[in-house]
Amino acid sequence: MRKKTFGYHLKDARSINEVIKNELVDVTITSPPYSEMKDYGSKEQIGFGQKYREQYMPDLEKVFSQCYEITKSTGSLWIIMDTFRSNGGVKLLPFDIANVLEKIGWLLKDIIVWEKDKALPWTGKGQLRNIFEYILFFVKSENYKYYIDRIKEIGFKQWWIKYPERYNPKGKVPTNVWKISIPIQGSWSNSNLRHFCPFPLELVEKILMLTTDERDVVLDPFAGSGVVLAQATCMNRKSIGFDIRKDYKYMYEEFITKEVKERWGIRKKELESLETKRNIIKNEIIKLRQLKYPKLLIKELNKSSINKEVSSSIITVIAVSAPFIPDENTKKHQFINENIYIITRNDLLNNEISDEIYKATSKPPLSKFGIIPKFEILSFNTFKETKIEYFNFSCSNLWLYSGGTVHKYSKPISFQEILDVIADCKEKYLGEIPPIISNIKVFFNISSTNAKQGVLF
Fold it and tell me: What b/e readout covers 273-289, taking b as 16+ CB neighbours within 10 angstroms?
């Protein structure tokens, strides 16, 4: 049964249910023929030669009704299409098809503009050169697969080093305008890609990463040259395609599968490199958040005259990164654990400090850092008399951040030197931000240029 189901079928898209009998499909990615726009040279074709309302739209409804029936509840449908000119006017095909599909039961979740860069080199009166198409994203239920972290962008352009709390460590959500150039027809590798509407591999890859897992089933009812099927296979998905043109299937089997496989080998290395960069930036943003958190805490305490007396008794902060272990009390936005030791001049105001810290960390901006802090308040004398083994951090790799600068350490520091720093602060410190000591190491030279560009090294 499986051998007959998966693969490229020389079959009319209106007969999908003759091949697929149950809810098997995880995602459908396709681009239907554009009504009378293009003649694919077959008497049975959908589109060319059909009346728009009376024949063309009912046939598309039939195809996508069957797609709905064979799609899992977690599945989705992606249709790439555009408006087109007819009889001197414009047919709003994407909007017409959206209305039809919603009647079937599909839920329209998003509309994406695909800026494809290249376009046919012609125009007419009242018509500019068109370089975009619509991508309609439908789901069968609200339980659909959607892995946005996989396609988040990491090219931060403004101030992520100074304001790490404003940037998601996993990257930023892409806009609904995707700029992806189409393949150059007739010049793709060593073959002749003759299909009228070739999909760029990057577009298919992006959709598959966003809405599928490995071993999921990918369908293209208007398979054409089979780019969707080939890309799905390379990404370890199962594929099913339908088309009525023998030459398209031949193109798929003889050229496309091989070329897509070769390109995917190169692309996989690019993705691995991108994932490495993503992890580097993620880790650096987490570190910067952890170092800025105690600094901002002191600043928040300094905002009122009542708290100023409290904050001025804090002479040093030791911020220690800890493994993140969520529990039943962990909130959705929290993903960082941090142990923070507050060293004070004496024990006189420790209770007041604890109360004020709770107030400050329970509201923005500190509550937006994603940090679960664990505070311990010790007087200098208590800290000096406490054995090193008591503290939940290694004393062999510690770094001093002074002068309110938390994106660049001043120097490495030993435990004995910590005692000297604290003793010195106890006698002389009158600054707004006390020294911060941490097992977290970062060193960024910020200028107006590299901060805007998000330079790492």
Answer: eeeeebeebbebbbbbb
pLDDT in tens, 349-376: 888 889 989 999 999 999 999 999 999 9
At residue 329 the predicted structure's pLDDT band, cuts being 50, 70 and 90, is: confident
Q: What pLDDT, on a 0 to 100 scale, did the predictor assign at position 87?
A: 72
pLDDT of 37 = 52
The domains of the chain, with CATH numbers, are 2-145+176-244 (3.40.50.150), 290-453 (no CATH)
377 strand-pairing partners: 342
- Model confidence at 414, pLDDT cuts 50, 70, 90, reads confident
Packing angle between helix 305-312 and helix 350-361, nearest 10 degrees? Answer: 120
Asked whether 336 and 369 are in contact (CB, 8 A), the reply is yes
Mean pLDDT of the residues in the chain: 85
Output phi, psi for 275, to 5 deg: -65, -35
Residue type, 236: N
Q: What is the pTM of this model?
A: 0.85
Q: In whole angstroms, what is the distance from residue 298 CA to residue 295 CA?
A: 5
Pair of tokens at residue 148: 């946005």
Of 50, 32, 169, 40, nearest to 101 by C-alpha is 32
Q: How far apart are CA 120 and CA 335, in angstroms?
A: 49
**Distance from the Cα of residue 344 to its chain's centroid:** 43
Pairing of strands 177-179, 411-413: unpaired
Entry field: residues in the chain: 457
Q: Where are the alpha helices (DSSP H) in 317-431?
A: 350-361, 380-385, 415-428
SS3 395: coil
Q: Taking the CA atoms of 104, 221, 185 and 194 in sequence, report the sign of the dihedral they define.
A: negative
Residue found under tokens 């999921």: 216
d(CA 320, CA 414): 15
Alpha-carbon dihedral 403, 406, 412, 414, rounded to 10 degrees: 80
- The helix (run of H) or strand (run of E) holding residue 93 is helix 93-104
pLDDT in tens, 127-156: 777 788 899 999 999 999 999 999 999 876
Within 8 A by CB and 6+ apart from 23, the residues are 69, 70, 71, 72, 73
